[in-house]
Amino acid sequence: MSKFSLIDSHCHLDFKVFDDDRADVLARARENNITDIIIPGVSTQNWPDIQMLCDRNKNLHPCYGLHPYWANQHNENDLEKLKQQVVTNRCVAIGECGLDYRPEQTDKKIQLHFFETQLDIALENNLPVVIHSVRATEDIIKQLRARPGLRGMVHSYSGSYEQAMQLIETGFLISLGGAITYERAHKLHHLAGQLPLSSLLIETDAPDQPDASHKSERNEPAYLVEIFDVLCKLRKEEKEEIAQQTSLNAKALFNIN
Ligand SMILES: [Zn+2]
Fold first, then answer.
1. I need a labelling partner for 190 at 20 to 30 A (CA). Which of 45, 109, 183, 216 fits?
2. Which stretches of the chain score pLDDT less than 70?
3. How many Å lie between the centroid of ligand 1 and the Cα of residue 204?
4. If you measure from the C-alpha of residue 48 to the centroid of ligand 1, how many angstroms do you get, rounded to a whole number?
């Protein structure tokens, strides 16, 4: 058990793979001092589950959005629903939204449309955005620079150090996940050690992206401790300070206390 309080800044606790033992998963998170969990929304179908989960537990915080990986399954009406959802229900951010340029993704234009509209909804409602970026950091930066005043985080960051600094200058936070626990992730190790602590968040992205010690298992928020430990080895600050500051960063961004 970790003596440091931590916040899991990105975890899909609503996903069906947790249906059989969600209470146990949450209990293990609590035992490991994970005080709060941010739950991003990926499509209109999962918003009601997130809403229900977060209504029952004040340490779970909902976000609503349309994920770029499933851009072909979203429609214009979903964007209208999102506008409604964020004014009628408590939420801490818009997302997860973004751009995903994996080779199997052939719908860049559609992705961009949903991404831009969600950024505008966030601005209109003075909410931060949770951004998913796979091989798309340049285009993400371009969109953020066009919208001064917009705040948010790039989850499971995988770009370069230089791009991370550009995102930070635009007012965004960089969220690090299981990928930093793998021995060969030299580029990520470098940036995890060098980026300003005031701009860092930590996350599991559970049930996906397990850390090295839980490779090919279902990921869960309690494993955030592994990511935290690796981050501490990469940085010069004391563990206490890293725990406090990353939690403070999450609380400030998502306006939770
Ligand atoms: Zn996610």
1. 216
2. 1-2
3. 9
4. 17
Distance 174 CA to ligand 1 centre (A): 14
Q: What is the pLDDT of residue 3?
A: 83
Q: Rounded CA gap, 44 and 85, in Å?
A: 10
- Side chain identity at residue 35, one-letter code: T
Q: What is the reported pLDDT for 157?
A: 96
Report the distance separating Cα 159 and Cα 133, nearest Å. 9
Q: Separation of 211 CA from ligand 1 center, angstroms? A: 15
User: What pLDDT is attached to residue 18?
Assistant: 98
For 133-149, give one letter per residue: b (16+ CB within 10 A) or e.
bbebbebbbebbeeeee
Q: How far is the CA of 70 from the centre of ligand 1 (A)?
A: 12
Q: Please say whether the beta carbons of 136 and 129 come within 8 A.
A: no
C-alpha of residue 37 to centroid of ligand 1, in Å? 12
- What 3-state class would DSSP assign to 123? helix
Alpha helices in the chain (DSSP H): 22-31, 47-56, 76-88, 108-124, 137-145, 161-169, 186-194, 224-234, 239-254
Residue 10 Cα, ligand 1 centroid: separation in angstroms? 6
Q: How far is the CA of 21 from the centre of ligand 1 (A)?
A: 20
Domains and CATH numbers, the chain: 6-254 (3.20.20.140)
pLDDT recorded at residue 2: 62
- pTM higher than 0.90: yes
176: which 2 tokens?
């690090």
- Give residue 73's identity as a one-letter amino acid code: Q
